Amino acid sequence: MLALERCRVCQGGNGRLHSVTSALPIYIWPLPPGKSNRFLDAGLFVCEDCSHVQLQTMTDAFIDSFYEDEYLVLEDHVLDRSRIEALVSAFGREIIEDARLLDIGGGNNPVAGSLSSLGYRCESWVVDINPRPRAKELASKVVAGRFEDADLPQGHFDLATSFDSMEHFNHPSDVVARMAEVLRPGGLAVVAVPNLTGLISSIPHYMVLHQHVSIFSVGSLESLFSLQGFRRKALLREDTAIYLVYENVHGPKDLSPASVDPWAELDRFRSRMEVIGEEIKALGLAADEHRLGLYAAGGSSSLFLANFPWLRECLSAVFDREEHKQGRIVPGTDLVVLPPEKIASSGVEKLLFLSDSIHDDVAPGLSVDCVNLARFFKAPIEMENGKHRDAWNSG
Q1: Can you name the CATH fold of 286-376?
Q2: Average pLDDT per consecutive 10 residues, the chain (395 residues; last block may be shorter)
Q3: Domain 77-265, what architecture?
Q4: N or C: less crowded end of the chain, CB within 10 Å?
Q5: The Cα angle at residue 278 between residues 195 and 300, in degrees rounded to 5
Q6: 311: exposed, middle or buried (C-beta count within 10 Å: 0-12, 13-18, 19+)?
Q7: Where in the chain is the domain with CATH 3.40.50.150?
């Protein structure tokens, strides 16, 4: 039975289950042939004390297993560069130049690589449970293991970055408490996480996955940091992601007000997923006599198929232009990811796309019937004061 023993933000024991997504793949990226996967339910819980949305309690060992060497991980160096550029735009070059920087969870996409490509000099440390060779090549020092337990100098760092990692931590409150210890007084914590509201509006099928044990809103992220004595310095982005900067002031440790009604947002999520399913079913794909293919083999597409398993069962081939995915198996199927050059000889007559940009780039050059399902995903995003905040391209 799914349960939440303690809230990951405020440590309260007042979590309530909203709903369950069934049979999600533990490993959402395509796996090498012969590697096993599991499909488990994910419960969406709301903390009644701090309004944080999160998945059920999981063991540390279970979460650690997500990041083993043989499983595919995403690289996105361009995104990290754009984040650094947004930070410099807001605070000036001096925030990074000659700084002592700590990169938390950057073992695959180390900030040090972005800093080097942009011409910045600084002392850069990386702490990651399973740091990759790129981190070891670029960082001044790499520490393997959980950040909460890492041997780091107290009050040493000017800047600590956590890009797309806070949502993965089983104990984010311990992580932020440790950040307060290793940052100097007045040092800055720079954090980017997926945004509950933005995900529901833009890519709802990518909101619930076992790797993202926390689904932050601005308010719950504020509580996470304010409960450890941080104060907000700047909000740089609020759309599908939240990009916030906090100052280590050792201030009052209080809950922040909720920024959204989590129950209403999760109701909206379930409603959107139901509507998307009905709109796709109306296309008649399940009854179509044509051989059906999919041009997408990433984590997002695996989650999309897991949410609509009837569609997954209709597929006869999957294609992707990224070579590191080719030859691997799509979760929940026995389909091997093929290169796009195989489309013509595959027998596929109708090809599905899950991305506007990939569809617009690829579809015009194909002779098969192309269907872009991404048009069903997006809903208008209403942000604070009706403004759409964005400091870099959404990607």
Answers
A1: Rossmann fold (3.40.50)
A2: 96 98 95 93 98 97 79 57 91 92 81 80 88 81 91 96 94 97 97 97 97 98 98 96 97 95 98 96 84 95 97 96 95 96 95 97 96 88 41 33
A3: 3-Layer(aba) Sandwich (3.40)
A4: N
A5: 40
A6: buried
A7: 77-265
